[in-house]
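Can you make up a protein sequence with its backbone structure tokens?

===
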Amino acid sequence: MSYDLVVIGSGPGGYVCAIRAAQLGLKTAIVEKRSTFGGTCLNIGCIPSKALLHASEMFEEAGHGLEALGIKVGAPKLDLPTMMKHKQDTVDANVQGVAFLLKKNKVDSFIGTGSIAAAGKVLVTKADGSTETIDTKNIVVATGSDSAPLPGVTIDEKTVVTSTGALELNKVPGKLLVIGAGVIGLELGSVWGRLGAEVTVVEYLDRILPGMDDEVAKQFQRILSKQGFKFHLGSKVTKVELDKAGAKVTVEPSAGGGAQTLEADIVLVAIGRRPYTEGLGLETVGVTLERGRIVIDDHFKSTVPGIYAIGDVVRGPMLAHKAEDEGVAVAEIIAGHAGHVNYGVIPGVVYTQPEIATVGKTEEELKAANVAYTVGKFPFTANGRARAMRSTDGFVKVLADAATDRVLGCHIIGKGAGDLIHEVAVLMEFGGSSEDLARTCHAHPTMSEAVKEAALGVEKRSIHI
């Protein structure tokens, strides 16, 4: 059987690409190495981690947040197996939903490891070793990424774990040492910290959340410190030794200096992710790679005609929603339509408590590019709804072009920031100004009023501070 398009990988980029292609009339198939669809995101990443983040937030709230509201319930008891069942139920519902959507849209599925035998031919190697070759006019590589290893450190997913193992722990560690102060490390550190672990974070750089707004990162570090996190910034892990009690971790200053040893029950390696391109046969067919990523043009074409790539295996942020938008765009391009992704308006969210959300440029990026800008800022301490919910940590920052007032970026730290950011994303998609945002009526009392007040603050006319 011959197809118009075969997608390798059924993560958010892959399955969305396949569904959109089928909607546009292309005969489409998808190849997935797991027994379930959804890729890392739905199976061992975004979805299960958010289930545990929510559950642990509820545990924390029950233990420490209700009495001040006049609700006395006593000390909560952790039932970790039931919490893990909630996580798995959430995963199952989502992956089954993807399977239903693929079937509904008449996308053929092949379970096995996909590789490119030649342009127009995808080889599927099944679990029993048997193979099947699929003929296709076009191929989209959407194989995602996996956890980046730390040289010299062996991952056993029991004591020394990646995010995958950190989502499967059968008891709360007494001491959790997180290597890497990025999004994944801080999210999973928050889960286990709320459930009782003592969390220590070791970061090579002298700050947390590299690449995010510096002011946001500094305030968030203070908040996490109040929550019990301990930080060793400007530090590197040089050795991890296992013993019966857990692990002994050797830490040295990044710039050089004396070493110290930290003890941990669990060590989480969260230093980033790397594109998953191993075994795809890319080099054999002539696809060019650069630092592990597939080189593509503005239309997602690789250096070999008929082979495209999207998501974590290509340039840009490794985000599920970025991959989804690319999946839609490449499907539309292959079908003869116009497909486009605005990389300047891709939100990023850290799902801690409080959340962090960002879109567009940071102050540091604008300064580096010599762009004149103005800043409007508003704290949640001055927001009525935030006070009512006892969620006053954080602020909203709006950055606008000094000459045109066009909004160039927005950075939020606060409860529900991941939802609040999207009105700014829509505004930026339409090239809106801070005045447009400031003059838009916002319901009272809501957390979103802080976004309006920050926009008012660009012209120094916030009302409530």
Remarks:
- The first helix runs from residue 12 to 23.
- The mean pLDDT is 97.
- The CA atoms of residues 229 and 301 lie 44 Å apart.
